[in-house]
Design goal:
The protein is built from ten helices and 20 strands. The protein is of the alpha+beta class. The mean pLDDT is about 95.
Length: about 400
């Protein structure tokens, strides 16, 4: 494709209003685009109006290199504050504005175009599987379904096109200084990066069931808030031990109590209280171990006190993802960036999760890199991607694939 065609694909995707729950229009657009270019596709239904898409080219022997990105975007919020409207792509001063430009229709379009151009290259002899998913932004729904159905069983390495850059070198340094990007002491040479790892997450509720009573007679009730606070203190002590384990790229586990609710009336002993907790996890202290230990704390508290009635309810468990920073695959990735951009990049730990959390559960031997043209404007008003970044990443994706099968 020429430059104008490459840009028009991204513009077309930005115009599609795919706030979570309406992703079929992206799947249909990509299906038509691929089929026009001689690439077979498969639609995989998640729900009405929600389809994952799988496309592949096989020009050699063996397993696949995966390209993956999600079709959904987050809600736009405050549409009147967008300079040009959230779904009206505008090219201004080297930037492309619109919801999803950074997270992650820039990466999705770049991966799709790379697949098409690799298919057209008679010298390319590799196998690429392109996977576009639904519902990444609220639970990695599409990738969880595809992982269970075996779609990554024959994939050996995965390129996730999520945003991995910053808008400037100064912004990159601030992200590192704030601990949002873990570098293990490395200094950035540019604002460009690729992520060899990202934390997983465990999200859960602890529910305290009590017995209501008039506040003048608290002894005849069971205060659900008191019991929840007792658990909170036990949990806090557990967290102090949990955060002592460190990963060389991702740092420590990060637990946070994010919501606490209880009580309805000032003169009534509350019979119900709950808290929501999110823990950002690392490979050294895996999700299943944390879940087991939390349940054990609750079981012991319930057994020790007949007035204690605590319940653990798991909301989600997304595994951490880590590829050895010195692995052959990550060296290949760094070399590919250097070939295209002429600079050395950081390979570091990402601040947020991706669909790779689901895919790695199904195929624990996957090498994974998160590499995409977006930046910290993701999810913000007037979200943007640099036009040059978007175009360069198409070449980066192609170079990674060519070296991988070279």
């Amino acid at each position: 494709m020429d430059k104008a065609q490459r840009l028009s694909v991204l513009d077309d995707l930005i115009k599609l209003e795919t706030v979570n729950g309406n992703e079929e229009i992206v799947a249909n657009y990509l299906k038509k685009l691929f089929e026009q270019n001689g690439i077979a596709t498969e639609l995989n239904k998640y729900d009405d109006n929600r389809y994952n898409l799988i496309a592949s080219i096989k020009k050699g022997n063996g397993n696949f290199l995966g390209f993956t990105g999600h079709e959904d975007v987050v809600p736009t919020v405050d549409n009147d504050k967008w300079n040009y409207g959230p779904f009206n792509p505008k090219h201004i001063d080297g930037k492309i504005f619109g919801r999803g430009t950074s997270d992650m229709k820039g990466g999705l379009a770049g991966l799709a175009i790379a697949l098409i151009e690799l298919n057209e290259d008679d010298n390319f002899k590799g196998n690429i599987k392109f996977i576009a998913t639904v519902g990444e932004e609220i639970g990695e729904l599409g990738s969880a379904k595809l992982a269970k159905e075996g779609y990554v069983d024959d994939v050996d390495a995965l390129v996730v096109g999520e945003p991995s850059n910053s808008s400037s070198r100064l912004a990159m340094e601030k992200l590192i200084g704030a601990g949002l990007i873990e570098t293990n002491g490395q200094k950035p040479e540019s604002r460009i990066a690729a992520f060899c790892a990202h934390k997983g997450s465990v999200t859960y509720k602890v529910i305290s069931h009590g017995r209501a009573a008039h506040s003048s007679m608290p002894e005849v009730g069971i205060n659900a808030l008191d019991n929840l606070v007792a658990y909170y203190n036990k949990q806090a002590a557990y967290f102090q031990e949990l955060i002592k384990t460190d990963d060389d790229v991702l740092g420590t586990t990060k637990p946070s109590v994010t919501i606490m609710n209880g009580g309805k009336q000032e003169n009534t002993i509350p019979d119900y209280a709950e808290m929501t907790v999110k823990i950002r996890t690392i490979p050294e202290y895996n999700n299943d171990k944390i879940i087991t230990e939390l349940k054990d704390i609750i079981d012991k508290m319930n057994q020790a006190d007949p007035r204690m009635n605590l319940e653990f309810k798991l909301s989600s468990s997304n595994w951490p993802v880590k590829t050895d920073i010195d692995s052959k695959f990550m060296k290949l990735v760094r070399d590919s960036y250097k070939d295209v951009l002429g600079v050395n990049i950081l390979t570091v730990g990402a601040p947020g999760g991706t669909d790779a959390s689901q895919f790695i559960q199904a195929n624990q031997n996957l090498d994974v890199v998160v590499a995409g043209p977006g930046n910290e404007s993701a999810h913000q008003i007037n979200e943007f991607v640099f036009e040059d970044d978007y175009l360069k990443y198409i070449d980066i994706y192609k170079t990674i694939a060519t070296k991988y099968f070279g």
